[in-house]
Amino acid sequence: MIKIVGIGPTRKDMTFRAFEAIKDADVIIGYKKYVDRIRDIIEGKEIIEKGMREEIRRAEIAIKKHREGKNVALISSGDPGIFGMANVFFHLIDKYSNIEVEVIPGVTAANYAASILGAPLHDFAVISLSDILTPLSEIKKKVENAVMAGFVIILYNPKSKKRKKPLIEALKIIRKHLSLETPVGVVKGGKAEITTLQRLDVDDIDMSTLLIIGNPTTYIKEGYMITPRGYALRYFIHPLAREYYRKYINSEINEGPNLECEYYPCHFMGQDCTFCYCPFYPCGDGSTGGYWIKDKGVWSCQECEWI
């Protein structure tokens, strides 16, 4: 059996299923940097290490060892099906007969980075900026379609020492369609920074960096990057709003500041409270520009951009 194993982005993020697959293997095959991560659990096994661009060779060796009757773990960082060894291996599947193979999924860099940043993912597109196998024109087309469709965009392999143009071109496209204040999460070496499209510094970005670029609804609150899932409005008009408007039409509501309200002033002294209730109130959706007044437990619509 060949098991194509995703070992996750870090040693601590390896799944139990991946651990079991590695433990049961006779032969471990992988890129040296990834093999180093699991050396504590592969002692006594046959270990075959190959270079970064020897993916096809690794897959061929895995098949050879499998046909010798060995249990093989072909390891891949993150998830093997996302820019990993599964994609390479299955290109060869019709070259051989009687191959037993199983893919062991792993935590991909997108999920790992998102967990550090907060909750930036909703509908999202994952795009590799490596133009070694993919033409730059194809990468640019994918980026443009993703940003125009409103996806959160996750960029893998953004920049190397020699390969800088794909990132420059991708950001040029994204900045053409999104506000320069759109949040961008930068995750590298387990550390995260949240910035904006305008302030993004590309100098420190390399192949081990992952970028998560928000969509038009993504916002930053309390140091976290958040993309709302959206919510279903239960009523055409919120009951509080309906009652308030009824009273206003019947001249039961005083215009101007409502000094009798227990929350007055929820914004500022002298505020106009005539139409206090928004039809969506309290939406609790920070992407609107609204926010919680923490010491009062009241949702503020003061900076709401929707209405």
Q: What would you note in describing this structure?
A:
It contains 8 helices and 15 strands. It has 307 residues and is an alpha/beta fold. Helix 6 runs parallel beside helix 7. The longest helix is centred in the first third of the chain and has 13 residues, at 55-67. The mean pLDDT is 90.
Overall average pLDDT: 90
Main beta sheet strand tally, sense and closure = 5 strands, parallel
Global morphology: elongated
- How much of the sequence lies in strands comes to 15-25%
SSE topology string: EHEHEHEHEHEEHEHEEEEEHEE
Q: How many distinct helices?
A: 8
Distance between the termini: 60 Å
DSSP helix fraction: 25-40%
Tell me which oligomeric state these chains represent. single chain
Please count the beta strands (DSSP E, at least 2 residues each). 15
Structural key phrases:
single chain, 5-stranded parallel sheet, 307 residues, 26% helix, alpha/beta, 5-stranded mixed sheet, 8 helices, elongated
Short description:
This protein is an alpha/beta fold. Helices cover 26% and strands 21% of the residues. The chain has helices spanning 16-24, 32-37, 55-67, 85-90, 109-117, 136-148, 165-177, 239-249; strands spanning 2-6, 27-31, 46-50, 72-76, 101-104, 118-119, 124-128, 152-156, 183-188, 191-196, 209-213, 219-221, 224-226, 291-293, 298-300.
